[in-house]
Amino acid sequence: MKSKISWIGAGNVGWHLAPALDNAGFPVGEVYSRNRSHAEALSQRLYGAKIVGNLDFAESQSDIFILTVSDDAIPEVTRELVLPENALLLHTSGSVPISTLEYAAIEDFGALYPLQTFSKARKVRVDDVPFMIEGSTDKAEMMAFKLASAISKSVQVASSETRSQYHLAAVFACNFTNYLMSKAESWVEEKGLDFDVLHPLIVETIQKSLQNGPSASQTGPARRGDINTIAKHLEMLNEKPEMAALYRLLSDKIREDFGQNM
Amino acid sequence: MKSKISWIGAGNVGWHLAPALDNAGFPVGEVYSRNRSHAEALSQRLYGAKIVGNLDFAESQSDIFILTVSDDAIPEVTRELVLPENALLLHTSGSVPISTLEYAAIEDFGALYPLQTFSKARKVRVDDVPFMIEGSTDKAEMMAFKLASAISKSVQVASSETRSQYHLAAVFACNFTNYLMSKAESWVEEKGLDFDVLHPLIVETIQKSLQNGPSASQTGPARRGDINTIAKHLEMLNEKPEMAALYRLLSDKIREDFGQNM
Predict the structure, then answer these.
(1) Distance CA B114, CA B109 (A)
(2) A131 and A34: one domain?
(3) Does B250 reside within a domain?
């Protein structure tokens, strides 16, 4: 019997993973989202998925249920879920322990965590994404492994603890770095200048950091202890107290870490 | 008559720019650094440079003097400099206005600012680096343009004000992002995990940000308003108050900017 998937949540992660599994021999038969138009948009990326309007899957033909709702919604959605017997329930979160899925009152549950950032507007090569999987039972772990292996060449078993450590690091290395780039972009654009001019510098910064390690690659006024430059930048940021606060904190930390205390 | 360069300062920028100009028809004849071993190391990358021990260039055969000292050292070094008549003095700083070079009591001075990050350990394609140049006189601007054009295909005239705006943006987009990656690295490594696992995620984050713009590309717990995840991360960071402070400030700012106030 072919495993069939019901998909719960139609955000950025589902947008990429559901079609990948659908194409890899794990047909997605049902899609649920609180926001019906999101469910409709996702179902259009799938071959034979119907939209379901509530979380009662007692009569579902699926044996695998994949949650791609936001981390905070996982406990609540899990409590509302009604699953058929012998269902396998997986979430795709880096930071939520699989024990949270115990609310669903089934035996087999686990995680299928793609260590990648997804946005609907950008295609990602799912087969390159590192997946971290975990199961409450051998059966659950095996099934999670099978699913991940069907769509990616990089799969490892990782505990909830390990996943959460990587997830926290990813927030620093990706979410926060992206945010700082957005501050740089808005600053430059407010001055009528062109953010694209900074692209080669950004690319080189990242390539160097990945090659030599970020700590060895640190440069800049705070790293060098250029206090006049730092003071000048803070003066330029007078009109932007929130950017000034970021600048001050990050510069202080860099100076501390690299022994540039004054 | 061929222009000859004296190089003052032997840090990361000089390490890459001096050989590039030396090879491009602007021979570097002299190298000065407060740290003599740095001057020696740089001179070994050049064809016929001798090391000089002080800043009195009254008898120098050079007509171009390039300062690659730290931003903070520029005023002091400029005051100490003794230059021959008709010398051109250039610094390579993003944040220091060229007016600082008036201390040298010459007419022709300016900036030759490479918008790139340089480390000795990593080769950079200088011809891809965007140079922003400025001159106190038409002659100075023309010479700065000539020098930059000899080593790069991307040269633009930019005022001290424009350079400093880009430089401030670059600190956010590059120095600070690199620092956050170093925090992610040390966190993962302290837990006995492998920072390399995060590489595909970092690369995708940057590529997406450059393609779609960082603001449109923002993801993560703060962007989604996952307050439980944020609380859990802060708890994990209990042992690292300085990382917790960064986490809190950046998450608060993201939530404010993206309307995820609670």
Answers:
(1) 16
(2) yes
(3) yes
